[in-house]
């Protein structure tokens, strides 16, 4: 039962499932029936399903048959209509065929035209595409053409910019074209070409500025000179000069700014052509002579190419080499000022360029690099100047060199370079300048002294008188009152020497200008140099003139007068120095002039030379003396040589009346110099006569010879009493012959008893007679008595005289021995 029920249930389920499948088959799209049929075959009841399917088909066929039977008449009618339509369709077909044939026949031309239109449309599309592609390519080609044009015209920095735009903007848009690939491959080569060409331009620029450094420096130094002149004008007229200076500075800065903001300038030359301008015209700025665009372009190019450091190192290395060349002075630089000027111009030109590069580029050179170069330049320049200036013997050249060094220092100081060492070196050159001045003025003084006539200056009229007074500070009321013509007491070398001393002071002052020295330092320098001039050069020149063999007594007298007046003028030289330096002589540490000492020494030397010359003249006359020492009787008058000697002395001392009696007051009376000369001459004459009497060659003499000698001494005493030089008191001048007089009186009067009795007492009559001298003379008379009086021993008085001589000689020896003990 249960199995039967179960089987019945399964059959019911299977039937329901088959029914469902049939409905799906009826309602489902044919394309999707596969899964449904698969479910039938997956089961085991497909046979029963087929039976059901066939039953369902038979049902549908019966329904269709019923429907067809129901609509059959309509179907027959439809077929009839269809047959009619077929006929009409045949007719229509023939018409359509005819129409088509006609249309085909008529449309052949249209088809051809359409084909042509098609081709035109295709060409138009191709042209449009080509235009579009060319629109993309043309900017690339234009940029490339522009690039080549810029490189051909050497506009390298714009060419590099064009290359950058071409590479990064235009070429990526058309990178698939073959020509673009060629361009891309050429870009590194173009960069290298730009790099090489710009470096070549830089080398040309460096070579150009090396050759034209002197022109750049010359312009810079002219500009500095103009600025100094302008500053001087401004200091005198500040309101007038201030506006001009401000305007000039503004214009210069504006020009410089415009120039420096155009690194893409198309000028590749390092030096612009600038014609020489007159000194009165405005000198162009140093930077206006130089076109720095090659440096700017090369710097920008290397910066863009990422090689800025390489460029900086190369530039600095090359400029260091150029600096060493510039700082090497020519071997003959010391011969002319132009040699120094060219040397300085090159150095200034070098550092003007470097200073401009420092301020117009960022980092190409830095302050440390400039300072290093300047330290090297400063040391080498100072060493060169020390070496070459030492060869210079012309003070004018040394002065010009100093002015050039000051201008050189001021120029570089204006660009911010420290120049204190240059001014310190100028102080060294100042000493050399002083030496060259001293040598030059030594020659000037020698010429003045050699060409002087050593005669008082005659003046015939007031004009000449004032001219001399204007040249030399001389005041003499007595001389002013005298009528013309009249004479100054000094010769021409006095105003000439005085004016040359002032010229020397002016020359010293010229060197101290612009050295930034204080008034005290300038005053000290001038005074020390002037002292050297007076104590060394002028003193030596005076001594040389005084010591000359051909300098006569008249010249020596005039030299004494001249040096006296020059000594008086020293205070005016002091005032002159004070006026030009504005330093009072009372200021602490102020050096005093040694002129007074110099002229005193010269005057003393002249005095000594006068004494020496007089003594030499006396010696020359004494060489003419020809005494007969064996004469029995004296002559009736003094010897001829002595008469001539006295006449010479009288005429000579007459010249001495022109000597000043005092330093401050001139007098017609002879002064101390004349008195000293006269006394010296008399003493020398007395001493020479004494030596003549006692010389060893005179072995014997007679009383007659002594008496003749006494006549000569009396002539000398007469000369002394006559007062050849006023000013001696009493018999002062006669005392020069006192030794001779007492000696001769002792022998002529034969007053030995008095001499021997009073010897050694202050009141002795023969106090000036030396026992040794008396003994020598007595021995000569003793020998004469023995030899010439052979028979004297037979005469009593002769024998007594010989005994007396022997006795006196013995006593004299005793006095001499006691004196030595």
From TrEMBL:
Keywords: Exocytosis, Transport
Pfam families xref list: EXOC6_Sec15_N, Sec15_C
Any single GO BP term: vesicle tethering involved in exocytosis
Ranges for domain Exocyst complex subunit EXOC6/Sec15 C-terminal: 421-780
This protein's GO CC annotations: exocyst; plasma membrane
All copies of domain Exocyst complex component EXOC6/Sec15 N-terminal, residue ranges: 52-221
InterPro entries registered for this protein in UniProt: EXOC6/Sec15 (IPR007225), EXOC6/Sec15_C (IPR046361), EXOC6/Sec15_C_dom1 (IPR042045), EXOC6_Sec15_N (IPR048359), EXOC6PINT-1/Sec15/Tip20_C_dom2 (IPR042044)
Function: Component of the exocyst complex involved in the docking of exocytic vesicles with fusion sites on the plasma membrane.
Sequence similarity: Belongs to the SEC15 family.
Cited PANTHER family: EXOCYST COMPLEX COMPONENT 6B (PTHR12702:SF3), SEC15 (PTHR12702)
Protein name per its UniProtKB record: Exocyst complex component
Lineage: Eukaryota, Metazoa, Chordata, Craniata, Vertebrata
């Amino acid at each position: 039962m249960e199995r039967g029920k179960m089987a019945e249930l399964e059959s019911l389920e299977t039937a329901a499932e088959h029914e469902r499948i049939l409905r799906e088959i009826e309602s489902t799209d044919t394309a999707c029936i596969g899964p449904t049929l698969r479910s039938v075959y997956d089961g085991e009841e497909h046979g029963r399903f087929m039976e059901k399917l066939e039953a369902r088909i038979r049902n549908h066929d019966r329904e269709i048959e019923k429907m067809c039977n129901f609509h059959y008449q309509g179907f027959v009618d439809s077929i009839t209509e269809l047959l009619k339509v077929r006929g009409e369709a045949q007719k229509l077909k023939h018409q359509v065929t005819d129409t088509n044939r006609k249309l085909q026949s008529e449309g052949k031309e249209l088809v051809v035209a359409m084909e042509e239109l098609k081709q035109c449309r295709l060409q138009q599309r191709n042209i449009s595409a080509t235009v579009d592609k060319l629109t993309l390519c043309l900017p690339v080609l234009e940029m490339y053409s522009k690039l080549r044009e810029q490189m051909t015209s050497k506009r390298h920095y714009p060419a590099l910019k064009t290359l950058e735009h071409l590479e990064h903007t235009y070429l990526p848009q058309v990178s698939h074209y073959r020509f673009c690939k060629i361009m891309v491959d050429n870009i590194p080569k173009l960069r290298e070409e730009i790099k090489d060409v710009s470096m070549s331009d830089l080398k040309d620029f460096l070579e150009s500025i090396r050759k034209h450094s002197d022109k750049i420096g010359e312009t810079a130094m002219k500009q500095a000179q103009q600025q100094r002149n302008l500053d001087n004008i401004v200091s005198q007229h500040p309101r007038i000069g201030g506006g001009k200076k401000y305007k000039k500075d503004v214009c210069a800065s504006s020009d410089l700014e415009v120039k420096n903001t155009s690194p893409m300038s198309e000028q590749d030359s390092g030096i612009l052509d600038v014609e020489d301008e007159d000194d009165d015209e405005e000198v162009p700025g140093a930077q206006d002579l130089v076109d720095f665009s090659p440096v700017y372009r090369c710097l920008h190019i290397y910066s863009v190419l990422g090689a800025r450091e390489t460029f900086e190192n190369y530039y600095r290395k090359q400029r260091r080499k150029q600096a060493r060349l510039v700082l090497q002075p020519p071997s003959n630089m010391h011969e002319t000022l132009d040699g120094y000027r060219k040397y300085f111009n090159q150095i200034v030109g070098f550092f003007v360029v470097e200073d401009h590069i420092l301020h117009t580029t960022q980092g190409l050179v830095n302050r440390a690099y400039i300072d290093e170069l300047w330290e090297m330049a400063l040391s080498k320049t100072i060493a060169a100047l020390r070496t070459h200036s030492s060869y210079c013997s012309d003070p004018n050249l040394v002065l010009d060199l100093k002015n050039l060094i000051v201008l050189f220092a001021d120029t570089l100081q204006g660009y911010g370079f420290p120049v204190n060492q240059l001014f310190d070196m100028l102080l060294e050159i100042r000493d050399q300048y002083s030496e060259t001045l001293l040598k030059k003025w030594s020659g000037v003084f020698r010429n003045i002294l050699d060409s002087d006539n050593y005669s008082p200056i005659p003046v015939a009229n007031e004009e000449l008188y004032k001219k001399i007074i204007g040249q030399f500070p001389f005041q003499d009321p007595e001389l002013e009152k005298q009528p013309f013509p009249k004479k100054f007491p000094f010769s021409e070398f006095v105003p000439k020497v005085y004016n040359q001393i002032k010229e020397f002071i002016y020359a010293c002052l010229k060197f101290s200008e612009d050295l930034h020295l204080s008034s005290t330092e300038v005053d000290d320098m001038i005074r020390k140099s002037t002292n050297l001039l007076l104590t060394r050069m002028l003193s030596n020149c005076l001594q040389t003139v005084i010591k000359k063999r051909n300098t006569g007594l008249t010249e020596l007298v005039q030299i004494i007068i001249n040096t006296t007046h020059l000594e008086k003028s020293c205070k005016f030289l002091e005032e002159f120095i004070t006026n030009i330096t504005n330093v009072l002589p009372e200021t602490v540490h102020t050096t005093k002039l040694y002129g007074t000492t110099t002229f005193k020494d010269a005057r003393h030397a002249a005095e000594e030379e006068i004494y020496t010359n007089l003594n030499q003249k006396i010696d020359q006359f004494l060489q003419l003396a020809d005494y007969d020492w064996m004469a029995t009787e004296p002559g009736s008058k003094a010897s001829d040589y002595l008469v001539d000697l006295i006449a010479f002395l009288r005429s000579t001392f007459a010249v001495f009346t022109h000597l000043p009696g005092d330093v401050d007051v001139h007098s017609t009376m002879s002064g101390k110099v004349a008195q000293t000369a006269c006394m010296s001459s008399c003493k020398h004459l007395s001493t020479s006569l004494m030596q003549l009497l006692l010389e060893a060659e005179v072995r014997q003499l007679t009383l007659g010879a002594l008496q003749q000698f006494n006549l000569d001494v009396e002539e000398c005493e007469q000369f002394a009493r006559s007062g050849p030089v006023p000013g001696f008191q009493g018999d002062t001048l006669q005392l020069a012959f006192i030794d001779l007089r007492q000696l001769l009186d002792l022998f002529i009067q034969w007053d030995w008893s008095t001499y021997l009795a009073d010897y050694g007492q202050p009141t002795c009559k023969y106090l000036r007679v030396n026992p040794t001298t008396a003994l020598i003379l007595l021995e000569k008379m003793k020998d004469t008595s023995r030899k010439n009086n052979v028979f004297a021993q037979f005469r009593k008085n002769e024998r007594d005289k010989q005994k007396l001589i022997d006795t006196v000689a013995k006593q004299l020896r005793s006095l001499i021995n006691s004196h030595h003990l």
